[in-house]
Amino acid sequence: EAEEMYKLSDNQGRTTVLRPDNTAPIARLVATRLSDSDFPVRLYYNQNIYIRNKQLAGRTDEIEQSGIEFIGDASMEADIEVISMAYEALKRNDVHSFKLELCHAGFFNSILDKMELSASEKADICSLIEGKNYSALNDLLDKMGTSAEADMIKKLPRLFGDVSVIDEAKTLYDNKEANQALDYLREVYEKLCALGFRENILIDLSLVNRSNYYTGVIFRGYAQGSGVTILSGGRYDNLIAQFGLDAPA
Length: 249
Known about the structure:
The chain is α+β, with helices and mostly antiparallel strands. The chain contains eight helices and nine strands. The relative contact order is 0.18. Helix 3 (105-113) packs antiparallel against helix 8 (176-194).
């Protein structure tokens, strides 16, 4: 979001920003300097990002961020590998009582796409859901008129828990693209359970992200004693193509 960036002017009067995200610059790097690599490629980084937080939020605007990018593999196995690595990272750091929440960007996007909204309206909906401001969200949706999609978005906050959440969502909203996303999410969830992660994973269909480059499974990590997300990630199959190289990631 533009209002969250730290903006500066260079010596030619051009607007520049301090790095607000690590994934997009790495996507550009892969599309240009690493385009001849043998894919998939696995990269890691450890560098600071800068995001303006709301006043009195109790959060620092400079964040040390470590992460990985897995580029060039569109398979479910790649999703499982990345989420397993997130699980392992939390385990090895002795993070107690942690949870990994899973969703699929295609589910929420399929609902929004049916609503014929402007980009700013979509951003407002995402922002209110992320901020858990459900009263304002309901008011905004009411102004947009009655629809199955608006009703479904209002119900998203309670679609949280084990795999039964997927069955409930299917009874509440019937759409081909949404169902495909839910079926994929169910399979990922079941494979993670088979790996022994059941106690630490949940499904949260209200998990949305204003970084609109996500296209598939998305996840966030939470831990007891922290009020903010300590880990996050997701599939972004269209981002690198914006820099000239069509590669899933």
